[in-house]
Amino acid sequence: MLTLGDVVGDFARALEAVDQVAAAGGLGPWRDRHRGVGALHAENTMAAVLAEMARSDPKRYAHAGQFPYPNSSLTGDLRIPGSWAFAVRRVRAFANDGTRIRHWSADLLHPYAGPETAIGAAYQLVDSQLTERTALLLFGYEHIPAEVSLQRAAMAFEAVVRSVTTIQIGVRQTAETGLLVHPVHQRGVVYAWELSHE
After folding, report:
1. CA–CA distance, 184 with 186 (Å, rounded to integer)
2. pLDDT value of position 98
3. From CA 101, how far away is CA 98, in angstroms rounded?
4. Extended beta strands in 99-186, E state
5. Which residues contact 114 (CB under 8 A, 6 or more apart)?
């Protein structure tokens, strides 16, 4: 059985592997590709990470990918058929040039429905009637040592979900990468929570 902790660990390992490929210039035409995985757009990161997960463990991830929500025109972020369906969001406190991003945690903590925010995506997922277990996965980057701790943002997310939503979240699963090549996005951090309705 594929556990949530397994997926989180595999995602972190794939981030680190993609970072090495990016640093060597092997990720194709994407802007900033030589500066590592942290410099990529979120959509490009997801595509590269999913490809790496499928390459490194095809038994688990060969059929993983985006999915259509039932009775909706919206597309979900990551489905591992028969196992897990995820809403995935990237969290970054700093831009590629090291500038602090204003309101960087707003989409993480905004407690209303709507697919743009982490909590809104969680609502959409738990209401989807998918047969897979559902989870929210957040990935982001920190300095070493962290100038802005993503763990504190994760704790704030948990507090908001538990106090003002009807979503039940499980125990946080966490994994980190080793040192990444980008001078700002030096370490990848991955968090995930199983989701259900109260």
Report:
1. 6
2. 92
3. 9
4. 133-142, 167-169, 173-179
5. 120
Using DSSP, state whether 109 is helix, strand or coil: helix
Beta strand 75-80 with 84-92 is: antiparallel
C-beta separation of 166 from 7 below 8 A: no
Q: Round the CA-based radius of gyration of the chain to a whole number and report it.
A: 16
pLDDT at 24 over 80: no
- Residue % of the chain over a pLDDT of 70: 93
Q: How confident is the model at residue 36 (pLDDT cuts 50, 70, 90)?
A: confident
Biggest CA–CA distance in the chain, Å, is 47
Is-contact 4 170, C-beta < 8 A? yes
pTM of model > 0.90: yes
**Which residue is listed with tokens 């980190």?**
176
Q: In whole angstroms, what is the distance from residue 154 CA to residue 139 CA?
A: 10
